[in-house]
Amino acid sequence: MNDANKFIIRKAILELAKTGIPRSTSIDDDVRNLHNMNSKIINLWDYVTAIGAQLSRPPYDPYRETISLNISIGRKRHKKVNLDIPLIIYGNTAIQYNSIEFVHLALNRLAEKGNVLGLISEIEINTIYDGKRKYPLFKKIDFSNNDSLEDYKKSSPEGLVIEYKDETSLKVLQNFRKEFDGPILVDVSEIFPFHIKTILREGADGIIVDTEKVIKNERYKGKHAIAVIHDAKNAIDDYYKGREANNDDYDNDDKAILVIAGDVNSAGKIIKAAALGANVIGYSTSMLIAHSHIYSEKTSNASSIADDVYSHMIGTKGEIKGIPAALGYSDFHNLSPSDLRTSSIDASLQGDIQLEGLDKTYKEMIEEIIKEYVNDKGIQKLDSSETQEVLRSIVGK
Description:
There is one protein chain. This protein has helices at 3-19, 27-35, 97-112, 125-129, 149-153, 167-179, 196-201, 211-214, 225-240, 243-246, 267-276, 285-290, 302-327, 345-351, 362-377, 384-395, and strands at residues 48-50, 71-73, 81-83, 87-90, 118-121, 137-140, 159-163, 184-187, 206-210, 257-261, 280-284, 340-342, 354-355. It is α/β, with parallel strands linked by helices. It has three domains: 1-40, no CATH class; 71-338, Aldolase class I (TIM Barrel, Alpha-Beta Barrel); 362-397, no CATH class. The radius of gyration is 23 Å and the shape is globular. The two termini are 36 Å apart.
């Protein structure tokens, strides 16, 4: 503990002794404010921690034991795309023709070593590299063109990505779903959280949500990526609710996946996003570029830059294997919200994350207080909807 942190703790004790009133803000807030004096934005990621392995769930050794990162994208009756690392390179504004070469080379080298990632791109990869692509391509559909599915098939993509804007996008999804047997992902960032059930009903194999785009919308103003991931996961789960009992063909492994992009640009955030419900992370191409010397004055060829990107992705893979292993999981996709704790009431509310030391979410605490109050006062018991209404009036959600 450094001197600054000790000072804040002493300050908190003196305030309590002097006033007899507990602090109204978290010590965490003051500690972080020392390091973010010029920032008005509270990064809730910093307030969320993962619980380490316990006696009932001992840690794994990622160097000696298999830690699975694999995931399949695609629902029943459609071809599936298998990834060895649950990452898709996402963010096409950064992929121009002058940078696509090193991305292509790096992804090919990764695939050759059994580290298959996906790529979302509008660029015709196969026509540039004469079909020498060894990784799955998700071709992004450009609505400014009137291309048919046959035009997109020229790229030989394993999957398609449709950016949902309006009913026209839904018609495109309906038409392509009839003819394309690979996975189709739908980016709902512009209209989130609406129409997800309709999109899944029309056969989408996955939903893409860019948290940085969503939190710019009025509906999510002042909220964090944590809230977006939580709500996106709930929206997909709501679509499947009850299907287990009503559908003999229901297969729990056959669900549409959730791809989360945006403010998920480090191994720690990837782990937390996965615990909150993300199946795959849309890894920003701008991050890849930042981890290469493309902006350096030093002269580098595409091969050396690709080497840097390759090394960065191998390092990231090691981190996202090592952290679940330390938490006691042999499968990355076994992470869940129960593995997280937070010191922030905001983070608890936005992500339904349990509070440190209490093992309850803030909403659960308030709900218990409401029930106790109703019982103590002899008030007629509230039904579930009435309880939720009171909760919303108290916590704003």
